[in-house]
Design goal:
This protein is of the alpha+beta class and 244 residues long. It contains five helices and ten strands. α1 crosses α2. The longest helix is centred in the last third of the chain and has 14 residues.
């Protein structure tokens, strides 16, 4: 059975997230339906990252197996045809070795979070970024973000819905760039806790506003979610890249 890897881009605004659920349409479900229409086969699609409701993707990766080999261009174009008018696009399709698994073969996942720091509300970028109206202390946020890098117990930065058995995570990169009114966070690790990126970003925003006086190091040491800041909205979060 040929094993296919597909690279996916989507706007997650109106979906319950990547994973198939009973309470609404998911990205996984819609692509599985498209695969069935194209191949006449029922498949289980495995995604590299389980993005939450409202979270977007620039570089999601998924894999699936079918009985009959189909040209990768036909897979890409056929799925895109059946996914219309949903804002989901298959950017590329490739045949990979039988052992490849989009989730378990991943070595590193990179997320991007976008903040627009201005007084006026968003129009064009509504549902694509978090608009923070109060002026942020960018330098303080940069300094505090460095404490996230490395191996730590990040229990203070996971949601109550998190089912992960271990809260020990290693952050490889935590980069914040300022471009005019925009703040772009790029965070990379092998894996993340539920809502971890959004809580880390929300905590740094509260620090940047002067609302949170504890340092990131102190919050990490507390291992207590109450010590951290708010959870940033899902609208500003993007699954950027998966490394294998």
């Amino acid at each position: 059975m040929p094993n296919y890897k597909i690279d996916i881009e989507y706007d997650g605004t109106n979906y319950v997230g990547w994973q198939r659920q009973d309470n609404g349409q998911s990205i996984q479900e819609l692509i599985e339906i498209a695969i069935k229409k194209l191949t006449n086969e029922i498949v289980v699609l495995f995604g590299a990252g389980r993005t939450d409701a409202g979270v977007h993707a620039k570089g999601q990766v998924a894999s699936f197996k079918i009985k009959k080999e189909i040209n990768v261009s036909v897979i890409r174009d056929g799925l895109n045809q059946h996914l219309r008018p949903h804002p989901i696009a298959i950017i590329a399709a490739n045949i990979v070795n039988d052992e490849f698994h989009a989730r378990f073969s991943a070595k590193k996942r990179s997320y991007e979070y976008k903040i627009v720091n201005r007084r006026s509300p968003l129009t064009i970028e509504k549902n694509r970024a978090w608009c923070v109206h109060k002026k942020l202390d960018f330098d303080k946020m940069i300094i505090q973000s460095k404490s996230f890098i490395g191996k730590n117990d990040l229990n203070a930065f996971r949601s109550s819905h998190c089912q992960s058995k271990s809260t020990i995570k290693t952050i490889n990169d935590f980069i914040i760039e300022k471009k005019s009114e925009d703040l772009i966070f790029t965070i990379s690790a092998k894996s993340f806790l539920h809502s971890q990126v959004r809580i880390m970003v929300g905590t740094l925003v509260d620090i940047g506003k002067g609302l949170l006086l504890k340092s990131v190091s102190e919050i990490i040491e507390s291992k207590n979610r109450i010590s951290a800041g708010q959870t940033a909205p899902s609208s500003g979060l993007y699954l950027k890249k998966i490394d294998y």
